[in-house]
C-alpha cells in the first residue's frame, strides 16, 4: 500500500509501505523528516503525531485510551490527530495521507 506523508512546508512523499508495518515505521525507514518516534512505537512520546485526512480518519481503528492521553501532550492536537505508530498499514489503507505538524518538521 502507498502512504503519502505531507510535510508542513508542502513537500509530499508517497511511499510503498509493507502491510503490517506502522505508518510511523514507514516514515522512519524512509527518513521522512518530522516523525522522530523517540519511543519506538511504545505510545509514550507523541513525536510520531500526525494529522489524518478527514476521509481516512473514520476508516482507521479507534484510538485506545493511552493514545488519547499522549495526543493531549502533542504539539497542537486536532480532531484528526493520531499517533502514527498506532496505525498499522494494510491494503485498505492504500492511499492514506497524513500531515506532519509544523513543530515536528
Ligand atoms: Fe512514540 Fe508513537 S513512536 S508514541
UniProtKB/TrEMBL annotation:
UniProt KW Protein biosynthesis keyword: no
Keyword DNA-binding recorded: no
Gene Ontology MF terms in the entry: 2 iron, 2 sulfur cluster binding; electron transfer activity; metal ion binding
Domain 2Fe-2S ferredoxin-type: residue ranges: 1-104
Lineage: Bacteria, Pseudomonadati, Pseudomonadota, Alphaproteobacteria, Candidatus Pelagibacterales
InterPro entries hit by this protein: 2Fe-2S_ferredoxin-like_sf (IPR036010), 2Fe-2S_ferredoxin-type (IPR001041), Adrenodoxin-like (IPR001055), Beta-grasp_dom_sf (IPR012675)
The entry's keywords: 2Fe-2S, Iron, Iron-sulfur, Metal-binding
Cofactor requirement: [2Fe-2S] cluster
GO terms under biological process: P450-containing electron transport chain
Similarity section: Belongs to the adrenodoxin/putidaredoxin family.
PANTHER family given in the database record: FERREDOXIN-2, MITOCHONDRIAL, FERREDOXIN/ADRENODOXIN
Name listed for the protein in its UniProt record: Ferredoxin
Amino acid at each position: 500500500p502507498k502512504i503519502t506523508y505531507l510535510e508542513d512546508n508542502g513537500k509530499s512523499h508517497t511511499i510503498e509501505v509493507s502491510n503490517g508495518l506502522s505508518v510511523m515505521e514507514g516514515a522512519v525507514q524512509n527518513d521522512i523528516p518530522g516523525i522522530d518516534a523517540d519511543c519506538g512505537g511504545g505510545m509514550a512520546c507523541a513525536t510520531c503525531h500526525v494529522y489524518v485526512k478527514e476521509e481516512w480518519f473514520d476508516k482507521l481503528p479507534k484510538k485506545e485510551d493511552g493514545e488519547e492521553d499522549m495526543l493531549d501532550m502533542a504539539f497542537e492536537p486536532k480532531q484528526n490527530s493520531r499517533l502514527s505508530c498506532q496505525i498499522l498499514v494494510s491494503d485498505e489503507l492504500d492511499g492514506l495521507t497524513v500531515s506532519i505538524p509544523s513543530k515536528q518538521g
